[in-house]
Write a structure and sequence with these properties.
The complex is a heterodimer of chains A (139) and B (125). Chain A is mainly alpha-helical. Chain A is built from 7 helices and 2 strands. Chain B has no helices and 11 strands. The chains are: A mainly alpha (139), B mainly beta (125). At the A-B interface, loops of A face strand 1, strand 2 and strand 6 of B.
């Protein structure tokens, strides 16, 4: 955990091994929520981890040994986030009213016939005015 | 003359527009925040695209000099094309940014909650 790429790289550290999946997710939830609650605004996990007095040992005590007595609360807060999550994309494409805003016409399912694509290098691009005229004469 | 019910008032978001297909013609229909309705060609001649229904409604004041030398100031409500932003007077179809360009506009009325558009001869300016 707490690795970072880019301008200021940092190796990720081994927090724990040989965990079953449930425990793994439990630790991820606890660490993530602890980070959310204690990190500074826009602070990356790598910087946050470096700012912890007591370092990795301290973090292990808090998360694995529950030295602050907060892990239950951390898990509840993470569950609240999970329960309230809504995917806006999914919510839109499953909502008939919202889907109407993506139609060209308010009173027809037809598409705009002025939007014409041609293929170039196996990709689509808009047809030029000249190409549109040529295509029209063919049809 | 063709008269057609195109949608319900609430199908048009206030200060927004929709595009209706009426006898093969694309008509942009707009609703202001105080429920005034306007209908104009949907085709933007500057970008050659059917986009005006997606434009931004705005308002401005136009000063015209009258024959007696006095100056008349009129409020104009316009639609700005989303592509290059030329503005078209929603009442007359005249382009405020290029006086050689004028779009057709159409009669639109509200019957209850139903929006009715009539295609007939373009409204004279």
């Amino acid at each position: 955990m707490a690795g970072n790429g880019g301008m200021v790289p940092r190796h990720g550290e081994l927090f724990a091994t040989d965990l079953d999946t449930d425990t793994l997710i439990q630790y991820i939830d606890r660490i993530t929520m602890f980070y959310i609650k204690t990190a500074d605004k826009l602070q990356r996990t790598s910087k946050w981890r470096e700012s912890l007095e007591g370092g990795l040992d301290y973090l292990k005590q808090v998360i694995i040994d529950d030295s602050l007595g907060i892990v239950e609360e951390l898990e509840e807060q993470m569950q609240l986030l999970v329960d309230n999550y809504v995917c806006e994309w999914k919510a839109t494409i499953t909502d008939k009213e919202k889907l109407k805003r993506f139609r060209h016409f308010v009173n027809s399912e037809l598409a705009d016939d002025n939007v014409v694509f041609v293929t170039e290098r196996e990709q689509i691009r808009p047809a030029t005015e000249t190409e549109k005229q040529v295509l029209e004469t063919i049809v | 003359m063709t008269t057609q019910l195109i949608c319900k008032l609430n199908d048009i978001i206030p200060e927004g527009g929709v595009c209706a297909l009426i006898e093969g013609k694309q008509v942009a229909v707009f609703r202001t925040k105080d429920d005034q309705l306007f209908a104009i060609d949907n085709f933007d001649p500057f970008s050659n695209a059917n986009v005006l229904s997606r434009g931004l409604i705005g308002g401005t004041h136009i000063k015209t000099e009258l024959q007696d030398g006095s100056v008349k100031e009129q409020e104009v409500i316009y639609i700005a094309s989303p592509i290059y932003k030329q503005r078209f007077d929603l009442a007359t179809g005249k382009c405020l940014d290029d006086d050689t360009v004028k779009l057709d506009c159409y009669d639109v009325s509200l019957e209850g909650d139903k929006v009715i558009v009539s295609l007939k001869d373009a409204i004279a300016a």
